[in-house]
Amino acid sequence: LTEDEKETLWEKRHYLTQIPDALPLVLASAVGWDWASLTNIYQLLDDWIPLSSVQAIELLLPHFPDITIRSKAISWLKNASSDFLFNFLPELVEALRFETFEDSSLAVYLLTLCAGDRRFAFELYWQLQQRIDQCEEKSYSNRCRLLQQQVLKLLDEEFGIDIENQHRLLQALNAVSCEVKDAGDASKMQLTLQRHLALLDARILENNVRLPLLPSFLCTGINVSESNYFNSLTKPIKITFKGLKSSFAVLYKVGDDMRQDALVLQLVKMMNDIWLSQELDLRMVIFRCIPFGNKSGMAISLLFLIWSYSKGMVELVSDCRTLCEIQSAVGATGVFKDDLLKKWLEMHNPSEFQYKIALENFHLSCAGWCVATYVLGIGDRHNDNILVTRTGHVFHIDFGKYMGDWQTAAGFRRDRTPFIFTSDMAYVINEGSPQSATSRYQHFVDNCCKAFNLLRKKYSLLVNLMKMMSCSGIAGMNLEAVNFVQSNLLLNLTDTQATVQFTRMIEESLKSKFPRLNFLAHTLVQMRSTPSMLLGGYGDPNKLSFVQQLYTMKDDGRITRAVVLAFEKWHIPEKMYKVEVNRENETVCGIVYRSFMEFNELYIKLCRRFPFAHLPPLSQGTNVGRSNIRKVAERRQADLQQFLNVLFEYHPEVASSDLVYTFFHIIFRDSAPEESNQFLQLKVDEDDIASKKITCRIFLRLTYDQQDGDLNVFVGHVRGLKIINGQAPDSYVKTYLHPDPQRISKRKTHVVRNTQMPTFNEELNYQLLSDINLVDRALEISVWNCGSLVGENSVIGSVHIPLRKLLDIPVDRKGIKILDGWFNLSTGLR
Q: Which of 234, 238, 394, 625 is most exposed, with the fewest beta carbons within 10 Å of its own?
């Protein structure tokens, strides 16, 4: 605020008492804080409308040191939900730094929360322990130690025993981690880990312990067989703890300051809470991380002190794989294959219902993490720290680079896109459509832009959280980081302008080749350190790469015959072979679709398992020249039929093996072939528009500023464009403001190629002199197909909107008239 703005706010303060957001600004504009001025300030607090919990947090920042103001903020904060307070506990502990005395209203309130809910007591204890261990400011460290002692005195003896057991557990895990690192080679490291965890399992069985990460989980032991270590620099260990009814897996890491990870995950959770509060569920996977300081022992003589590096415990998400693991299933070139991710989701979701849910989870969570990683400037993104669960949820890990601290290699910035959104992700969202975008992609863009604008609307929550933590000593968290996030939120733009900007970022990320080159480099490094990855999908001799589990003759019924009926072109360039499967006691034959590569995988694995079986080779006479032309496919069809004839006449040990029955088990692509066949999809889309007479429509938003005379035309999505000459059109939008005899009002968007459902999200501007100009003027919007180098552009459809419609629309509080919605496009120009 400038001095003039402060003076104006203070003069008009009594007119603002019904606006909660104005109180921090008014207090910051007070002319003085001497004893004579305090009476007026305190009276203002009493007259002001109560602040929400989010607004009250701002009064706990360091530039409001007055005890009465901070006490008033705590009184308003008491109306907050327990979940909000629990999520904001690290910031409340950090706010203790700015209190004048130890017995502040904030300290008393924190103790009150602990007395009422033991969940707060455990969390507050470990938050205070972090500050005791790591804070260099002795006065604040001592204040945290004093409050920690009060927490132990306030609660019963059982709580003290639980805390002591937690410290012993951390001490033991710290020792195990050090032993594993010192063991040397991989085999010794695993044996060392299992030996020490077996001893720890016996100790936990005798004295159950509550995990610091999740105190509600009472640990009764360790599942040693499911525990291992990760082959990275710090050698983190995965530990699966056993409970009374379930298990809980964590990653324990020594050698990294994990406060950054904890802070980023907290910010992401805050973002998700904002979205959920506005009924936008992006299916975000939220997991917890708790860092520990340089001492894992207790400072109150319960245990002796142990010094080590920074460390932490992270909740592990179950049933997930990194993009690197999914892509490397077919070797290093898997990073360039668009269909692998979709096939992986199909494999783990065999029913149509499961698959549709997985696609929805993928689309929504991918949108959430695109927005979150952009706003926070998360760097060092590669295919080993982006994960996908079997149910389709995308999530990120490893947040060592953030707030614009980009990863570099040989002086070059490796993170060259606003966020990671690659063509294989778009392929999943488009459900394998050969077109560049579908209505599902349009929904993805809408969700990204909506999520981004909701964060802009509620930016004060994120900014206040970061301001509170700017004095915490966490690397990279300072006022520059606050400014970075505010800059990324584009707060100087309108929602429409922000939508335009974020859409351009999606397009930039999707078109860039750098992320995949970065993926390739990282995959090659991983393959060099993990030679088994070089085997790709053929690594496990007892399973097929495209089916999640094994099936037997008992599961599906005895196969009597299999006939290769035909081949179909599903992908470019791959062909699929249609196989009729006859089963005993079944009148209706099953149909499965398998590629030649999948047949070859079956052949290789049968030969490995049954080396004395003489099955006819599949590759004879098919490996010269192009392998996907029609002649080759016909020759392969004959080879495959011969292979199947011999296979089912062979010894039952081979013909009835689980590999064979798994191969012919009905999977998602067999029950819904139209979902996987790109060429059938294109035909279905074309026939759909023709048979159902789907109307071509365009989404437009017209905003007219009466004061400035600005008319802004937002061109959003277009749906239902027809196939032109057997191909999806390359379209753009052109506008004119009539009457315009000289045609100087022409505006046009960029070209969106190869789709019947283009997304433009572009704003076109006109300057009108007055409302009088609206009466006799009309806006012409037309969609055009961009011809080839020698062909001419052709109009697809158009709509005329008389601007007099704006006259009947009331202005909003900013003096803007808005007309928006879907408009039907008529064929040709008027």
A: 625
Among 254, 284, 306, identify where a domain stops: 254
- Secondary structure string (H, E, C) spanning 597-664: HHHHHHHHHHHHHCCCCCCCCCCCCCCCCCCCCHHHHHHHHHHHHHHHHHHHCCCHHHHCCHHHHHHC
d(CA 469, CA 485) in angstroms, rounded, equals 14
Residues 76, 11 share a domain: yes
Q: In terms of domains, do 33 and 166 share one?
A: no
Query: In which domain, by residue range, is 738 found?
Result: 697-824
Chain position carrying tokens 């909003």: 812
Specify the amino acid at residue 325.
E
Q: How far is CA 206 from the centre of its chain?
A: 41
Do 82 and 142 reside in the same domain of the chain?
yes
307: pLDDT strictly greater than 50: no
CA-angle at 513, arms to 512 and 515, nearest 5°? 90
476 by Cβ neighbours in 10 Å (0-12 / 13-18 / 19+) ranks as middle
pLDDT of residue 410: 65
Residue 22 CA, chain-centre distance (Å), reads 34
Measured in degrees and rounded to the nearest 5, phi and psi for residue 92 equal -65, -40
Residue 130 carries which side chain, given as an amino acid letter? Q
Q: Does residue 308 lie within any of the structural domains?
A: no
User: Which amino acid, one-letter code, is at 770?
Assistant: S
Residue type, 386: I
Strand-strand pairing, 759-767 and 710-719 = antiparallel
- Residue 703 pairs in a beta bridge with 712, 818
pLDDT tens per residue, range 627-660: 557 888 889 999 999 999 999 998 999 999 999 9
- Residue in this structure with the two tokens 């905003």, named with its chain if needed: 703
CB contact set of 319 (below 8 Å; sequence gap of 6+): 389, 390, 391
The amino acid sitting at 266 is: Q
- What average pLDDT is seen over the chain? 89
Q: Is the pTM of this model over 0.85?
A: yes
CATH number assigned to the domain comprising residue 30 = 1.25.40.70
Q: Are 504 and 430 in contact (CB under 8 A)?
A: no
Is the domain of 331 the same as that of 452?
A: yes
Same-domain check for residues 137 and 218? no
Indicate whether 139 and 37 sit together in one domain.
yes
What's the confidence (pLDDT) of residue 547? 86
* pLDDT on residue 120: 97
Tell the burial category of 802 from Cβ atoms under 10 Å away from its Cβ (0-12, 13-18, 19+): middle
- Same domain as 735, residue 631: no
Element (H, E) at 5: helix 3-11
Report pLDDT digits (tens) over 243-268.
999 999 999 998 888 899 999 999 99
* Inside any domain, residue 474: yes
DSSP 241: E
Task: Please answer whether residues 581 and 590 qualify as being in contact, where contact means their C-beta atoms are separated by less than 8 angstroms.
Answer: yes
- Please report whether residue 226 resides in a domain: yes
Is the bond into 50 cis (omega within 30 degrees of 0)? Answer: no
Q: What are phi and psi of 197, to 5 degrees?
A: -70, -30
In a domain, 547, yes or no: no
User: Residue 661's closest CA among 538, 563, 580, 550?
Assistant: 550
For residue 737, list its beta bridge partners.
779
Cα gap 260→262, rounded to integer Å: 5
- 363: domain CATH number is 1.10.1070.11
Rounded mean pLDDT of 423-443? Answer: 92
Report the alpha-carbon distance of residue 311 to residue 259 in Å, rounded.
9
- Give tens-digit pLDDT for 350-385: 888 999 999 999 999 999 999 999 999 999 999 999
Question: Which pLDDT tens digit goes with each residue over 46-100?
Answer: 999 999 999 999 999 999 999 999 999 999 999 999 999 999 999 999 999 999 9
